[in-house]
Write a structure and sequence with these properties.
single chain, 311 residues, alpha/beta, Quinone Oxidoreductase, Chain A, domain 1, Rossmann fold, 2 domains, seven-stranded mixed beta sheet, 30% helix
Amino acid sequence: MANQGNVEHAVRYVGICGSDLQKLHGDDPPAFTDLGHEIVVAHKEDFAVINPMIECSACRQCERGSTMLCDNMQAVGRNIPGGFSGSIEVPARNVLAVKYNRPELGVLCDPYAVVVHGLKNTLQTPEMMLLGDGIISQLCLAYLALNRTVLERCSLFVKDEPRREAFTATYGPLLAAQGIDFACFSSADKQDPSPHAQTVIETVGRGQPDTLNHAIKAVDYGGLILSFGVFPMGYSAGLDIRTLLYKEASIRGSNSFVQTDFEDAATQLGARQELFEPMLGDVYDIRDAAAAVEAATKKHGPIPRKVVVAL
């Protein structure tokens, strides 16, 4: 089994993920130490990032190479103790040594691996629409800035006008360098989600149907809605199924990754640290965890940042 031969590591930094916030604000919140899957640990004389997905390597999904769908998945911060506990035990193959100018940058490896996994085989059309302005949406834009695709036009819907201006100024030139025409809209434009796109990326999740219904309205005929958003367990969304089916469109989730995605994410982070470092927000001591959770929940600023906890 994958949990044999585990090695214990001292945790140094943990990012607060939206899925952590959902659980903490839920009806039956877990202990804080049970959470945390965006992890940087002490490793020899330096640091390493942790792939939190521990597959069994023996089930039918693993044998097919779809380890992200492992039938017996053990996930740090989900069904085994998380990074906020201060130490974790994982197989050696889940530990990847890195050298970043700011070691806390490693907390972005997990969410960026999710993006790499979701986008690498998805962007096969010239138009894409992004819904949401959190870290996942920013990582999607970073992916477009670093990787050659067939994309020609990208539109983004954000919360308000200050964020529209900030995202346009930050990511417009980066995407233009890749030959991508970038247009950003604020929430006031959501009444008519135009232009339509063959690929619509939903990044918000949570217990609300609005962004998926926005995606259904915006997706072109025969198009794809890719959802990175994490929705609560057991949540049933009121979706415009008639329109989705009439358009012969489809919805696909992407919330995990395979080891090569994680390695690619870590490599790209290291190669263009100056692109990713601005996504990092304040670093809180573990003794100020409550303040860190509050900051992550409020998402202040024209461009939301990743809140990090230091242990």
